[in-house]
Write a structure and sequence with these properties.
Layout (H helix, E strand, L loop, with lengths): L6 E4 L4 H12 L7 E5 L7 E4 L2 E4 L1 E2 L10 E4 L3 H13 L3 E4 L30 E3 L3 H17 L1 E10 L5 H16 L32 H15 L6 E8 L6 E9 L5 H9 L4 E3 L11 H4 L5 E9 L2 E11 L3 H16 L4
Parallel strand pairs: 1-2, 1-6, 2-5, 6-7, 7-8, 9-10, 12-13
Antiparallel strand pairs: 3-4, 9-11, 11-14, 13-14
Bound molecules: NADP nicotinamide-adenine-dinucleotide phosphate.
NADP nicotinamide-adenine-dinucleotide phosphate (NAP) binds next to helix 1, helix 2, helix 4 and helix 8.
InterPro entries: NAD(P)-bd_dom_sf (IPR036291), Semialdehyde_DH_NAD-bd (IPR000534), Semialdhyde_DH_dimer_dom (IPR012280)
Family: Belongs to the aspartate-semialdehyde dehydrogenase family.
EC number: 1.2.1.11
């Protein structure tokens, strides 16, 4: 790591920002080289960083002066303003929001999948990261693609409320408490009550489309990521809001190009260090959100196939949305980018 590197984390008080700070602490990044920034709402808030206390400062162009790397853990509308501001100050910028994922001038990078793009030349100094669901999808599809080819993927993502940040966490807490006290709760963050419910909508719908932005994002981001491998599977699915706090579950049907037995597929998945195979259903061992929190690997299990259609594989996976699906990608991509000299 560049010993003089200064890093700014924007959105440091959020679900993802908090994870970024603890990841940097785990990697012994020095407190005096770290600036934590937020909106005026969190200005002056104090964050513990090991033995040190960091004070959240408001974002201004001056705040980026002398900073080599800016990690943006902010909502997309804020990132659209802040990324160019940080870039203009000369910093490398990694953004975890959806703001630049579809922008052909901005590389879409999943560390460990297509990290080579971080060393390639590209316009500007901004890098986009995929969503947490796409992170899980790409991570588990890649060994299957290498072994058998992947033609098509149908996914249902059961998404914990932390994907809507601190406001999402608060709303599920409040709704659960209200329902347990016999009161009907109000829905503000989510389109419908999520407490003791399951809602087949996460985020807004695309204009004039039956697909939500989250769902359309998986198709587009997978296409961009797998284009770097020269083979793009068709990915489509449904995003479902479930009343859990952390972790996403993915129920998947994968159509392989070459039929594979469950044992062959399991062996391919086991070969990836980015995955943990939990697949002993008789012993009640399978992926669950409660097991994946704070784990940097994507968990996969419940592997099945159907004799009549041996090219289809059915499985279940989980990912720590705020950690593996966001904060680790920010830190890993950012530190690698900061090694670049220009
Ligand atoms: N949560 C996940 O699982 C996940 C996974 C992948 C990607 N993401 C993406 O990560 C980003 C952050 O999500 P989150 O879950 O951490 O949300 P969050 O808990 O709501 O946190 C948002 C953070 O951004 C700050 N912020 C908001 N507007 C700002 C502005 N104009 N200037 C500076 N700071 C601003 C907030 O500061 P204040 O506290 O001052 O408002 C807060 O620290 C979003 O783009 C989200 O889509 C999230």
């Amino acid at each position: 790591m560049n010993e003089n590197l200064r890093i700014a984390v924007v959105g440091a008080t959020g679900v993802v920002g908090t994870e970024v700070i603890s990841t940097l602490l785990d990697r012994d990044f020095p407190a005096e080289q770290l600036t934590v920034l937020g909106s005026e709402r969190s200005e002056g808030e104090e964050l513990e960083y090991g033995e040190e206390t960091l004070e959240v400062e408001p974002v201004t162009p001056e705040a980026f002066r002398g900073v080599g790397l800016v990690l943006l853990a902010t909502p997309a509308d804020a990132s659209r303003t802040l990324a160019p501001m940080a870039q203009a100050a000369g910093a490398w910028v990694v953004d975890v929001s959806s703001a630049f994922r579809a922008d052909g001038n901005v590389p879409l990078v999943l560390p460990g999948f297509n990290s080579e793009l971080l060393n390639a030349s590209f316009k500007g100094r901004i890098v986009a990261l995929p969503s947490a669901v796409t992170t899980a999808l790409a991570t588990l599809l890649e060994p299957l693609r290498q072994g058998f080819g992947v033609a098509q993927v149908q996914v249902t993502a059961l998404m914990g409320v932390s994907s809507s940040g601190n406001p999402g966490l608060r709303e599920l807490e409040q709704q659960t408490a209200a329902l347990l006290s016999g009161r009907e709760p109000e829905a503000h963050v989510f389109p419908q009550r999520v407490g003791f419910n399951v809602v087949p909508q996460v985020g807004p719908f695309m204009a004039n489309s039956p697909w939500t932005e989250e769902e359309a994002g998986w198709t587009l981001e997978s296409a961009r990521l797998f284009a770097t491998k020269g083979e793009v599977p068709v990915v489509a699915g449904t995003a479902v809001q479930v009343p859990t706090f952390y972790g996403h579950g993915l129920s998947l049907h994968v159509r392989l190009k070459k039929p594979a037995s469950v044992d062959q597929a399991r062996a391919a998945l086991k070969g990836s260090p980015a995955l943990k195979v939990l697949d002993s259903p008789g012993e009640k061992i399978y992926p669950m959100p409660s097991l994946v929190t704070a784990d940097p690997t994507v968990h996969v299990g419940r592997l099945r196939s159907f004799p009549q259609s041996p090219e289809w594989l059915t499985l279940f996976a989980t990912v720590d949305n705020a950690g593996r699906g966001a904060a680790l990608n920010l830190v890993e991509a950012g530190l690698r980018l900061a090694e670049r000299t220009a």
